[in-house]
Design brief:
By secondary structure, the protein is mainly alpha-helical. The chain has 12 helices and no strands.
Length: 345
């Protein structure tokens, strides 16, 4: 129970630090006085994804939203440190708390972002923002209360044995097949669209179909499930090792680390690839739902996090998840209305 509480605290602190880091990046992009669409940065902030350089006009070849005159500004570094420490907190939380709970608590960053945007960027807090905050706070409380608080430790021998179980093999095979098939489809679709682009304007590549746009979101979220699944395993092994029980005495640990290390940058790449072809208001809620549903299922199947749920646990947990999803929806409605007001003015 004590470690469960520590994990919840670390997850909330991590989400808060990630929101602070992204807010700092946003403030830096605004203060740099470059021709960057701050609406894009604001929307990316709500999804907790690192900002990628945004192409600028040709008359500013030495500047982008990260670097000025090829120098890294200290304020951007401060944002990076805050974001990185927040991710470390989440990583440790995965080692001592349920996977589904830690990932769902990431919604707390939306609450922190709303307050920070109002304090430092003078952004108006609308009724949808207030509704989002209320939904998310209530959802977090119900999700935490409804979760199984009993210790569910996964030392290396138990992990190795569990990877041999049919349900786990089927789960990993399905996830891997979705990623492989999705990446192949995305690649060939991009090649096909590139061959059809106008010879008069090489930049006029057509946008993908609705199905392909959805595929970008799905593949990115499934890779994110791999990151969370193996990140929890890796973090748990580190916790055992630091407590005096060496877990890095089997070659299978290398597989866990490799999958985690490969999936993390791949997830970031696919999220930003999705943002390049999808409207952000389409990407954010859909990615959040797919990613969290995937983490709930993998947590239940692989880490058996719902094995001892009672009817009251299920009721509280399901209502909490629905409230969290409702909070994310309200956040995106609020952002959409702010953009409309900006464009109309």
């Amino acid at each position: 129970m004590v470690f469960f509480i520590y994990g919840i605290i670390l997850s909330l602190v991590g989400s808060s630090l990630q929101a602070v880091g992204l807010c700092i990046w946003k403030l830096h992009s605004i203060s740099s006085n470059l021709n960057v669409d701050t609406n894009i940065i604001e929307l990316r902030e709500t999804h907790e994804t690192p900002l990628l350089p945004i192409p600028l006009p040709k008359h500013t070849p030495k500047k982008n939203c990260f670097f000025v005159d090829n120098k890294i500004p200290w304020i951007w570094v401060a944002g990076l440190c805050s974001f990185a420490i927040g991710n470390i907190c989440d990583f440790v939380a995965l080692g001592i708390s349920p996977l589904s709970v830690v990932t769902l608590l990431g919604s707390w960053s939306l609450v922190v972002s709303t307050f920070l945007a109002n304090m430092f960027a003078n952004e108006v807090v609308s009724k949808y923002d207030i509704a989002s905050i209320m939904f998310i706070i209530c959802g977090i409380v119900l999700t935490v209360i409804g979760s199984d608080h009993r210790p569910n430790e996964w030392p290396l021998p138990r992990l190795i044995h569990h990877y041999e179980e049919p349900k786990v093999i089927v789960l990993l095979a399905i996830l891997a097949s979705i990623v492989a098939a999705g990446l192949i489809a995305i690649h060939f679709d991009f090649v096909a669209r590139k061959t059809r682009m106008s010879l008069d304007d090489p930049r006029s590549i057509e946008r993908p179909s609705k199905t392909m746009k959805a595929l970008y979101v799905i593949v990115g979220s499934v890779v994110g499930n791999f990151t969370a699944l193996f990140g929890k395993a890796f973090a748990g092994l580190l916790v055992f090792t630091f407590s005096g029980q060496d877990q890095f005495n089997n070659p299978f640990v290398v597989v866990i680390i490799i999958v985690f290390v490969v999936s993390l940058p791949l997830q970031i790449y696919l999220v930003n690839a999705s943002l390049a072809v999808n409207d952000i208001l389409y990407h954010i809620p859909n990615f959040y739902v797919f990613w969290n549903v995937g983490n709930i299922l993998t947590g239940a199947i692989f880490y058996e996090e719902t094995a001892h749920f009672s009817s009251s646990n299920w009721a509280l947990y399901i209502v909490g998840v629905l409230l969290l999803f409702g909070g994310v929806l309200c956040t995106n409605i609020a952002v959409a209305r702010k953009i409309q007001c900006t464009n109309s003015s």
